[in-house]
Amino acid sequence: MEILRCEKLRKVYGSDPQQVTALDGINLTVEKGEFAAIMGASGSGKSTLLHILGTVEKPTSGKVFVEGTDISLLRPAQAAIFRRRKVGFVYQFFNLIPTLTIEKNILMPLLLDKRKPNPEFFQEIVSFLGLSDKLGFLPGQLSGGQQQRAAIARSLIYRPAILLADEPTGNLDQKNSKEVVELLKLSNRRFCQTILMVTHNESIALETDRIIILEDGRIIRDQQQKGTES
């Protein structure tokens, strides 16, 4: 089932003669439950694409549909609500609130939306991510790998339509990087979570179901991985 579709997506910054085209006619379809890696050199448009998919930025032209909703038409207030309910984010630097416990950090998206958490689902996630004994800790008391686990838990707690991971292992050592990628893979399989992950690391990209390569704002390759589990 299609969960995401981009049609002739363009993003242009500035105006002539300093105009820069970050995305140049992107057409992309993602099915529910896919785990895809987005790769490309710096400046190829990877982060711009993620920002538009997450309603952080608006495209210059073209359309983006998430679960049938054209998010490119949303007004700022509507986009904020959509982002809070439908898009999960995992960043390189965790973005946890240092003065809040891990439990409150994980629940923050629901609290901001004035929604009550499902206790069973919360316990399932924190147990799955190995955080059950860390809920009362502050982020600074945890290792980098544990903080990224908390960030993943926060992104899953409201069951988003898509999870966008922007270089989620960029701030971790090799051991923790492998653990985080494995947890994303398991989240994809256990919760049927659709994930788009930007990465420069080819070995990490090879762990996904699909690799999408951008160059100068265009998709130059889009291939399914052989032997991966969906």
What is the topology?
Blueprint: E1 2-13, E2 20-31, E3 35-39, H1 46-53, E4 61-66, E5 69-70, H2 76-86, E6 87-90, H3 102-112, H4 119-128, H5 144-156, E7 162-166, H6 174-190, E8 194-198, H7 202-205, E9 210-215, E10 218-224
Parallel strand pairs: 3-8, 3-9, 6-7, 7-8
Antiparallel strand pairs: 1-2, 1-4, 4-5, 9-10
Helix pairs in contact: 3-5, 5-6
Features:
single chain, 230 residues, alpha/beta, Rossmann fold, six-stranded mixed β-sheet, four-stranded antiparallel β-sheet, 10 strands, globular
Give a written overview of the molecule.
- With 230 residues, the chain is an alpha/beta fold.
- The chain is 32% helix and 28% strand.
- It has helices spanning 46-53, 76-86, 102-112, 119-128, 144-156, 174-190, 202-205, and strands spanning 2-13, 20-31, 35-39, 61-66, 69-70, 87-90, 162-166, 194-198, 210-215, 218-224.
- β1 (2-13) and β2 (20-31) form a beta hairpin.
- α5 packs parallel to α6 (174-190).
- The relative contact order is 0.19.
Pairing-aware structural class of the strands and helices? alpha/beta
Helix count, DSSP H or I runs of 4 or more residues: 7
CATH class descriptor = Alpha Beta
Instruction: List the helices and strands in order.
Output: EEEHEEHEHHHEHEHEE
Low confidence ranges? none
Largest sheet: 6 strands, mixed
Which CATH architecture? 3-Layer(aba) Sandwich
CATH topology: Rossmann fold
CATH superfamily label: P-loop containing nucleotide triphosphate hydrolases
Biggest sheet, spatial arrangement of strands: 6-7-8-3-9-10
Number of strands: 10
Strand content: 25-35%
Compute the gyration radius: what is it? 17 Å
Distance between the termini: 13 Å
The global form is globular
Estimate the helix proportion, in percent.
Answer: 25-40%
Mean pLDDT equals: 91
Number of domains: 1
